[in-house]
Write a structure and sequence with these properties.
rSAM_sf, binds iron/sulfur cluster, 18 strands, alpha/beta, Elp3/MiaA/NifB-like_rSAM, globular, TIM Barrel, Maf protein, about 475 residues
């Protein structure tokens, strides 16, 4: 199906497009005219005329905006939603909410001292968020706030990106390099480049009087650097950062084929006085799906990696799973959650599949069967129920574009194992220093103004910039 939308103003264009997309996830939605369904918005000072044209009928609504820009945006969103709801006979659990950080809208309400009932009413009346999602949202916002309230304003995070993986996952949209012979030959230089950038970053951290409280090794599979390079980076970090302020070091050992005894032995030494959060990510316990999504391992490998990690006394292990993987049904997903629970990770992050433009899946999605939105929504509710039954709490949440059914990703954890970095990066209240190819630093200024600084995505370009050499 082809859908077009047109507006005589730049106002609310993002919401205009995203709310339409949320109702028609598999349609092609473009700015312009024509197509099977056409939407138009005409702004004339505070008055708006919103129109939907199909082959059989035209329906239009008129409404008036107010002086407050945020409120006007919601008025526009609700009127568009009403038109779409009548046309499709559907409702969306997240209503008109298009942002990726939903808890951010709850913070000011909590700060104003509103009680739970008043907050639910606001979310449902202003954003059309369903009763269940409003309750989940408030729970997560309160947990996030507890974590943030314990931080000093000088607290900051350090991200170290290694965008290299053994193979590329079907759904991956990151600029992640597969470890070819050529990429392997660059690993030494990449490590030197990281150290070079870290040295410059320490100066900035000092100038800004920041304290690094959470460090995150991610971007792909950091273990591909090899133990000697990893040791070099940690040695440099500990020579330059005050160990006593570091509350968490996350190491993405997501792919079990990159974990070995030497790595675990080394990280376990750090784990003796610091909190190392290890990520071992099955995504699914179904070996057939693991093949389809291009991960070069089985669920047995995940179990082995957990056993090794427990042998080295790691307690803070996170496991990522994905709901809605190609070819999977309700039973596959429920089995995955059961299998992961048997491994007793300290935290489980539940993602809903997102089909990104830059992923291979974007070009192959019609080769597979996917769960429908209602099933995904029911499974998200089931997940919350079952994980809470097992003592996990939802502590952080975000949404992505192009997720199946426009749903959410939720981090659950046993109390005391909240991922500090995850909460800080979502709430954008603290500086994030990011090193490595494709890394994005974020600096927060007064009035919540945010400046982002982007590194080149290509590792060769990154190396040549950092080391001033031709690669
Ligand atoms: S493990 Fe993550 S970064 Fe690596 S290919 Fe898969 S999705 Fe991409």
């Amino acid at each position: 199906m082809r859908i077009t939308y047109f507006s005589n103003s730049q106002k609310f264009l993002y919401d205009f497009q995203h709310i339409i997309r949320a109702f028609y996830p598999s349609a092609e939605v473009k700015f312009g005219h024509g197509g099977d369904i056409h939407f138009e918005a005409y702004f004339e000072e505070m008055k708006v005329v919103l129109k939907i044209q199909t082959q059989h009928k035209t329906v239009q609504k008129e409404f008036v905006l107010v002086s407050d820009e945020h409120e006007s945006k919601r008025i526009f969103g609700r009127n568009l939603y009403d038109l779409l709801k009548d046309e499709t006979k559907r409702e969306l659990p997240w209503g008109i909410l298009t942002g990726i950080r939903p808890t951010k809208i709850v913070y000011p309400l909590l700060e104003q001292g509103l009680n739970d009932e008043q907050i639910y009413n606001f979310l449902q009346k202003e954003y059309y968020i369903s009763d269940k999602k409003s309750k989940l949202l408030l729970k997560v916002a309160k947990n996030e706030m507890d974590i943030l309230n314990k931080l000093e304003s000088s607290s900051a995070c350090l991200y170290i990106g290694i965008p290299i993986c053994p193979t590329k996952c079907l759904y991956c949209s990151f600029s992640c390099h597969e470890i070819t012979r050529q990429v392997k030959s660059l690993i030494g230089m990449y490590t030197d480049s990281l150290i070079c950038e870290l040295e410059k970053t320490y100066q900035k951290i000092e100038e800004n009087k920041n304290r690094i409280v959470a460090i995150y090794f991610g971007g792909g599979s950091p273990a591909v650097l090899g133990i000697e390079n990893i040791k070099k980076i940690f040695t440099n970090l500990f020579e330059n950062l005050e160990r006593k302020h570091i509350q968490e070091i996350t190491f993405e050992a997501g792919r079990p084929d990159t974990i070995d005894e030497k790595l675990l032995q080394y990280l376990s030494e750090i784990n003796q006085d610091l909190n190392v959060r290890l990520c071992i990510n099955p995504q699914t316990s179904n070996d057939n799906t693991l093949k389809i999504i291009g991960r070069n391992h089985s669920f047995e490998d995940i179990k082995r990696a957990f056993a090794q990690a427990y042998k080295y006394s790691f307690k803070n292990i996170n496991s990522d799973v994905i709901l809605g993987l190609p070819g999977e049904d309700e039973n596959d997903y429920k089995r995955t959650i059961d299998d992961v629970l048997k491994l007793s990770p300290a935290s489980i992050t539940v993602h809903t599949l997102s089909i990104k433009r830059a992923s291979l899946l974007r070009f192959k999605w019609n080769e597979y069967k996917f769960m429908d939105e209602e099933t995904v929504n029911n499974l998200l509710d089931w997940t919350q129920y079952i994980l809470e039954e097992h003592g996990y709490i939802p502590y952080y949440m975000y949404r992505q574009k192009n997720m199946i059914g426009n749903f959410e990703n939720v981090g659950y954890c046993k109390r005391g194992f909240e991922g500090l970095y995850n909460v800080m990066i979502m709430q954008e209240k603290h500086n994030i220093y990011a090193c490595g190819a494709k890394a994005v630093s974020k600096f927060v200024y007064e009035g919540d103004r945010i400046e982002r600084v982007f590194n080149p995505a290509d590792i060769k370009l990154y190396i040549s910039r950092m080391l001033s050499v031709d690669v």
